UniProtKB/TrEMBL annotation:
Pfam families: DUF1244 (PF06844). InterPro entries: SMc04008-like_domain (IPR023163), SMc04008-like_sf (IPR036810). It comes from the Bacteria. This is DUF1244 domain-containing protein. It comes from Luteimonas galliterrae. Residues 29-94 form the SMc04008-like domain.
Length: 106
C-alpha cells in the first residue's frame, strides 16, 4: 500500500467520524452556529462531497449529496433537528460574514 493510499484511507476515516459526530452525537448543534464559529456546516460538507464526486466523473444531485451526509432526506433532518434561526444567531452570522467574507450561507 502506498503512502498516498494510506493517507486517503486515514482522511476518509476522519471524515466519516466527523460526519457521524455531527449527525448522531451533536444533531443539536445548528448549522447556523457551525457557520458562525467554523465557517462551514453540514450543507457545506454535502456540497464538498458532491463536488468531489463530480471531480471523479460521478453525477450527483444536491439532494443525493445531502442525503449521503445527513443519512436521510434533508427535509426529514430539518423537521427533526433544525430550528428557526434566532435574531441573535442571524446577527452573529452577519458579523461572521463581514469578518470572514468567504464563509457561505447555512
Amino acid at each position: 500500500m502506498t503512502a498516498d493510499h494510506e493517507t486517503t484511507l486515514l482522511e476518509a476515516a476522519a471524515f466519516r467520524r466527523l460526519v457521524h459526530h455531527l449527525m448522531h452525537e451533536r444533531p443539536d448543534v445548528q448549522n447556523i452556529d457551525l457557520m458562525i464559529l467554523a465557517g462551514f456546516c453540514r450543507n457545506c460538507l454535502s456540497d464538498w462531497y458532491r463536488e468531489a464526486a463530480e471531480a471523479r466523473g460521478i453525477a450527483m444531485t444536491k439532494d443525493e449529496a445531502r442525503e449521503a451526509i445527513y443519512g436521510m432526506p434533508f427535509a426529514e433532518w430539518k423537521a427533526k433537528h433544525q430550528h428557526e434561526a434566532t435574531p441573535e444567531q442571524l446577527a452573529a452570522f452577519d458579523a461572521a460574514q463581514r469578518a470572514h467574507p468567504k464563509a457561505g450561507a447555512p
